[in-house]
Recover the amino acids of this structure.
């Protein structure tokens, strides 16, 4: 019964890059849209949420992989949620200790990492079936891919909506900000643009290969 799992336990570059490119959580699987649209009004907020989610993702996948053979199938989802919630609580307190301003900016979306489909999906589809090292590398790739997606949106919205990046002015005092970009509709506009660009980039090699 264990032979199919052992045959798939090799670690390759794709183990990491799967979440960065081929199954990017934001631009391909379109998961975690609540924090993606809500906190990406600035680059620093986007990066902070991405790093926090990556920490929870990697830590929970590591622990779940380590105990995967000890957890009964009947309670595996409940066990995964408890593990994820534990690491989310840790991140919640860490962000409060580092910066109250950042904590207030991210708001309830820190606690909502618990129900992020990316984390529970990785736990069920990958960490519960593979050894710790492979699970960590795959989870790290997913976390990096999610962070890249958040930063792409947050950076674009901050540049167009305020003329800044990480609070640094880019265009001078005469720049007229696109106010819509820091409002909820701006998140949808920017997300749609990035989804289109990512789809074109992913389809281009296939199109060229067909010719």
């Amino acid at each position: 019964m264990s032979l199919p799992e052992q045959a798939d336990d090799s670690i390759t570059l794709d183990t990491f890059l799967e979440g960065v490119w081929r199954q990017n959580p934001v631009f391909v699987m379109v998961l975690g849209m609540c924090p993606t649209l809500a906190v990406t009004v600035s680059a620093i907020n986007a990066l902070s949420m991405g790093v926090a989610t990556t920490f929870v993702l990697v830590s929970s996948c590591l622990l779940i992989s380590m105990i995967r053979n000890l957890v009964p199938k009947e309670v595996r989802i409940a066990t995964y949620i408890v593990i994820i919630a534990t690491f989310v609580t840790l991140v919640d307190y860490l962000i409060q200790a580092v910066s109250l301003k950042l904590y207030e900016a991210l708001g309830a979306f820190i606690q909502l990492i618990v129900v992020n489909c990316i984390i529970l999906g990785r736990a069920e589809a990958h960490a519960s079936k593979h050894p710790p090292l492979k699970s960590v590398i795959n989870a790290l790739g997913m976390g990096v891919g999610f962070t890249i997606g958040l930063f792409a949106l947050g950076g674009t919205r901050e540049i167009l909506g305020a003329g800044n990046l990480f609070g640094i002015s880019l265009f001078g005092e005469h720049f007229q900000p696109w106010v819509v970009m820091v409002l909820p509709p701006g998140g949808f506009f920017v997300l749609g643009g990035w989804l289109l660009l990512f789809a074109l980039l992913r389809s281009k090699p296939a199109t060229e290969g067909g010719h």
In short: The first helix runs from residue 3 to 7. Confidence is low (pLDDT under 50) at residues 1-7. The radius of gyration is 19 Å.
